[in-house]
Amino acid sequence: MKTNLSKKKQDLLERLIDAAEAEVAQRGLRSLKARDIATKAGCALGALYTVVEDLDDLITHVNSRTLRRMGASLREALPKGGRPVDALRALAAAYVSFALDHTRLWAAIFYQQLPEGREFPDWHKADYPVLIEQIIAPLSELLPELEEEALTIRARTLYAAVHGVVSMSIHGRYVGVPKEMLHAEVDALLDALARGLEGPAPQTPRSL
After folding, report:
1. Which residues contact 115 (CB under 8 A, 6 or more apart)?
2. Cα angle vertex 19, ends 13, 23, to 5°?
3. Rounded to an integer, what distance in angstroms lies between the CA atom of residue 130 and that of residue 63?
4. What is the rounded distance in angstroms from the CA atom of residue 8 to the CA atom of residue 17?
5. Is the separation of the CB atoms in 29 and 104 below 8 Å?
């Protein structure tokens, strides 16, 4: 979030984010209109543009807030101690719950499209790691041979596998699983992936 604003403008920005967040949560990303958001935040339309560049900038603030909330949910879900496999399954379950409970806000993170040639600001990019940072510790226990960069890539791959199943299910794609089965199917996926990462179980020597 922008931090170089006066207290008055920071307060206005928070009200605008609150109003935009409520609108996205209720109606989705495409419903946002700058004039409606300004009215709900109790300010003139022109005042909106004193704290954000445009509607895309405001949506980015909403998405950053959602990412931070998601990160908090994932951290809370991480079990204390136990097997790394259990940690990964708990994180996946928390991700599914967040996506189901806050579907429109969750979807807005991945479906916001900026105009061609424009990039997301650094303060927003700094919120991206919450999607994988909790995966890295348990994954490093399963794959201690991986260097840091390779471990991060593997964490992204694992996240992408879970996210793909969740996204296709929530958006009703033909190959998506029914929403009521999403938790069970993602858990089965994580169990299979984690067992593969752990490697084959040691063979018990046969008696002669």
Report:
1. 56
2. 140
3. 12
4. 14
5. yes
> How distant, in Å, are the alpha carbons of 12, 18, 53, 77 from that of 112?
23, 18, 16, 27
Per-residue pLDDT of the chain (208 residues; tens, 9 = 90+): 666 778 899 999 999 999 999 999 999 998 899 999 999 999 999 999 999 999 999 999 999 999 999 999 999 999 888 889 999 999 999 999 999 999 999 999 999 999 999 999 999 999 999 999 999 999 999 999 999 999 999 999 999 999 999 999 998 777 788 899 999 999 999 888 877 776 544 444 444 3
Buried b (16+ CB within 10 A) or exposed e, 102-124: bbbbbbbbeebeeeeeeebeeeb
Q: Angle CA(75)–CA(91)–CA(161) in degrees, nearest 5? A: 135
> Would you state the structure tokens that stand for residue 46, as one six-digit string?
């022109």
Residue 78 corresponds to which tokens in the numbers above?
């991480």
Degrees to nearest 5, angle at CA 193 with 191 and 195: 65
CB-hemisphere CA count at 13 Å for 61?
22
Q: What is the dihedral of CA 157, 183, 109, 155, to 10 degrees?
A: -20
User: No. of H helices and E strands in the chain?
Assistant: 10, 0
Alpha-carbon gap, residue 30 to 52, rounded angstroms: 18
Q: Which of 76, 121, 124, 125 has the alpha carbon at shortest distance from 98?
A: 76
CA atoms within 13 Å, Cβ hemisphere of 85: 13
